[in-house]
Each structure stands twice: as structure tokens, then as C-alpha cells.
Amino acid sequence: MSSESTALGQPSHELPYEGDSGNSESALRAETSHCALTRSNPRVVPPTNGVRWFLTTRTQQAGYCLEYLQSLRPELEDKSALDVQWATKRLCTFSVEEHNFPNSKDAHAPAGAWRQILSVYHNLLVRGNPTYPTLEVERFLVSCASEAIPIEESDDEKTIVFRDKLTGSLRSTWLKLLAQAHVAVDHRYADFHGATESIEEEKFLREASKRISPSIFQLVQCQRALSTLLNVSDATEFYDQRVDFSLETKDNKIVVEIDGKQHSEEKQQTLDRRRQEFLEKNNWKVVRVPASEVRRNQIEHAMAMLEQHFAEDPFLSIAARNFQHPIGEEEVGRAAQQLVLVPVAVARVQWALLWALM
After folding, report:
1. Do 336 and 312 fall into the same domain?
2. Omega cis (within 30) before 110
3. What is the pTM of this model?
4. Among 44-48, 170-174, 209-213, which stretch is predicted with the lowest mean pLDDT?
5. Is 194 domain-assigned?
6. Is the same domain home to 213 and 349?
7. Total domains present in the chain
8. 239-282: per-residue pLDDT in tens?
9. DSSP label at 237?
10. Distance separating alpha carbons of residues 345 and 281, to the nearest angstrom
11. Looking at the domain assignment, is residue 300 inside a domain?
């Protein structure tokens, strides 16, 4: 098990708590403290210029959803087996690697009215899980998409809404594309760039890519902190421990462990049993594969299990299809991706700027 932290920006597959919707500074601090308590994975880094500091990986959340998409939510759920609401939350969830130099942030952080303003902005950004963007952002994105799909702004006496004029099979196709766009997979990312602890772990993942889908490189999280897979009360049992691979969707939670020869030792076996007990208690399916079998390429059982999940799980099957046949290659598919993904990207950039300022 590795002690390396999750890379900056690497997707995190667990869904965090919903933040407080209050706008006070104390609410923000409570919210931040709760996140730090439940999802942090701090470790000491060797001193830099004589100063000891910490590296912390935290799960965060930020995202926008257009009013137009929100109005289509019931139809999207009806036209696709994918749980679009869950997929949206997944898009809005990410992990951040933070370098905590002692007192460095407090020394430069804004105080008084400025901090209160930033705290309010932060809460507006994260409170809706996701929330609506500004009218200007929605107007711009809708105008871009309108080159492929007729979407009009209607202004009544009470509110401004955006609606398309599609009917019949065209509307059905458009709704399916919008649902697919919630599964973000980049077809150009066809090789492994993660962090594994052994040659056997990388070999296993590469073999899964060949047999199942290269999209697995973007869906599996390597060396995920064990604490992020467990309830808060259980996570305290395992400090700074990790699992080799995790794959999490709404319907499936899978951990794959590649066991080297050290796992035959009695002490390690006791720890393995305890880890597995807690993982299964938290609804994770644990698959153990001896490293010797990976070297001999005798991994049919594990591959068959993963292949079955990719065939039956709506999220995984759409991910594989989006990788093989990218919807962004057509104008209407690009319009769907813009409406779904750009608001999430905007919110994440805003979150990063706020975090840096605070």
C-alpha cells in the first residue's frame, strides 16, 4: 500500500456531504472543518529549508448545472438507464492536494469584510450540489449550443427560462446525447498515467484495458486512501493506508487488491482480513488477485467480473461507448458536452480561485 497522495485534479469517486447553505464565516469554517475531519489524508513531508509542512488530499465539490438542463432532468432519466443526478454529482466532485505550510495561509488570508464576502461567494458556489450559474453564463452557453440545437430564451413576468423546440425522434436523440455527456471520458487518454506500487498492478490494469475498455484508465482510481472508502467512524481504524484500485459507480463499489508475497505473512493476513471486513461492511466488493497470477496472466476470474460490470452497469457501459465512439466528433454531440461540462469546469476554476484567496 502506498503513502503517495492523490494527484491534483484526479477524479475522486466518492460523493461528499452536502455543504451548509448558510453565508456566515463561521458556517464556512464549520463546513471546512467537517470536510477536513472526514476526508483528509494528511502526511508529513520532509522539511523544506528547515520548515516542516504537511501534504493533505481533500475531497471537494463545486459545480453548476444550467436551468435548461435541470428542466430536462425527468426526461433525461426516462430516456437513459443512467442516473443523471448521480452522474452530475460525480462530475462536481474532485480531490485537491494542498501543501500546508505552518501559518502561511493565516498570515496572508483576507480578514473582516473581504473574508465574509469570499465566504458568501464560496457558499453560493457549493450549496446547491450543484447550483445554477449566472444568467450571463447560461446565455452564452445556450447561444453556442443553439448553432446545433434550437434553444430559445422565454421571458415571462416572473423568470427567464430556456427551452428547445425539438419534437419526436430528434428530441429523443438529443436527450440521449445529453445523458451520455454526463459521463466524461476523453478518447485521447488511452494509456496509463496513474501511480501504482508494483509492476504487477500496472500489468493488471493494462490487461483490463485490452480486454474490457481503455476507458478503465480514467474510471479506476489507483492507490486511493482507505479512509475515503469507509464511514467516518470506521476510517479512524486505518491511518494512511490505501487500496490498490477502486472502481465506484452508483450501483457498484469494487476494490481490487494485487497481493505480493508479503501478504502470505500472518501479520499481513490479519490486517488484510480486517481491512476487507470493514470494506464489506461499507458495501465494497473486494477482489484479491495474487501477484504471481498476474505475472502468469492467470486473471480470468477478475477480468470476467469486471467485464460483467462494464456490460451491466449503465455508467460503465456508457463510458466504454463514449470512449469508442466519442459524441464530441459531431456538432450536436459537442453542443451536449458544452452544456453539461463547461458549467462544471467554470465552477471548479472559481472554487480554486476562492480557495487560493482564502
Report:
1. no
2. no
3. 0.79
4. 44-48
5. no
6. no
7. 2
8. 888 999 999 999 999 999 999 888 888 888 999 999 999 999 99
9. T
10. 35
11. yes
